[in-house]
Please model this.
Amino acid sequence: MSEHTRPPDYIRDPHRPRVVIVGGGFAGLHAALGLARLPVDITLVDRRNHHLFQPLLYQVALAVLSPADIAQPIRSVLRRQPNAEVLMDEVTGIDVAARLVTLRSGAQLAYDYLVLAAGATHSYFGHDEWEPFAPGLKTIEDATEIRRRVLLAFELAERQMLEQGWHPPLNFVVIGGGPTGVELAGAISDVAQLYMRHDFRHIDPAASRVLLLDGGPRVLAAYPEDLSQKAQATLRNLGVEVHTQTHVTAVGPGWVEANGQRLHAAVTLWAAGVEASPLGRLLGAPLDRRGCVLVDDRLNPPALPEVFVLGDLAHIEQDGHQIPGVAQPAMQMGDHVARIVAADLDRRPRPPFRYFDKGDMATIGRMAAVAKVEWPFKAHLRGFPAWFTWVTVHIFFLIGFRNRLAVLINWAWAYFNFTRGARLITGDQHLPGWEEQTQAPTTERKPNPVD
Model:
């Protein structure tokens, strides 16, 4: 028998329940791992071959870490799990009546249980034409594109200064004051103020401006007010210009319009909104305004007990509040699906899901963060204690010892030597709007252009 016709390591038992998991993020991967010891067969489907540790994605975007530091092939995570198989494919259809999932390749997967954990994507609030000028941050591709644009802006300014004796304003505009926006703005300031200060001969990177625009009254609106105020003060100490109550009305090549005024932007980044994966609509179940599927405390849409919706794609409320679409709830949902399947197999009642909130944290530049800790004690942390907590938690939850070690070494090297080893520019040398701004010298008043 040839190697290509060799039977698999295990023979699928037609009497064993088949679980199809869509999405290899925190929720989907935890569901697969939780089902490892149960008599079920698992097929995990994802468009990409890797699990991505999204909380550290902004550090890839700002050249602290390389993509391989925060990503792990899904096959390698599940390689010791004989009841699991992985398909790199994309779901295009779901027939809940026939219990069939259709893939882009044309294949169909029958299921006894369907776990839908396809995550979320960017929301431009009906202005998808802004996306080419203001990329968001959800994938490795997004991160490397942001890295390309940020680093390229400095390179083009250096070249322009050498050739013409002037360069357009180096304004970096971040739209959205949530955790991603705060982390991006603080990291860009670090790049300009600390890590590139000796790299150029004709420009001063520290003279660039970082502007954080948000339509609400404060940044980190979901955090307690004292931590939000501390985050805003820390950003301003880093040189970030924070503009709240600022509503962006248009985004174009090299500019942003907000509160009726136009602002030059060498790089514009989008961190203002997300919407659920469109796969949720295929279920025919009720959705909220962001496209999330409304589920009960067993993580099921109405009248679909064999379907579980997890993570960013699920809208579930607890104690009168929607559970946030972040990593911790997603992991707990994945673990809970395994408990529900185990209860079904044992013919026991399904246990309800209850989110155990351990807290929230966001980093703000070098060795500074804010953290709302709920377990093992309750506290609001700021500054270095919050940053150290943030580092510890993120290292712990990285999948794979190699990743933990790589991240720890890279962080230590960057923070103690003020260097960043992943400052690579890939792709072309085009920035939206740069050519137009270099046609003639431009001036820009220093006072706030978005007041």
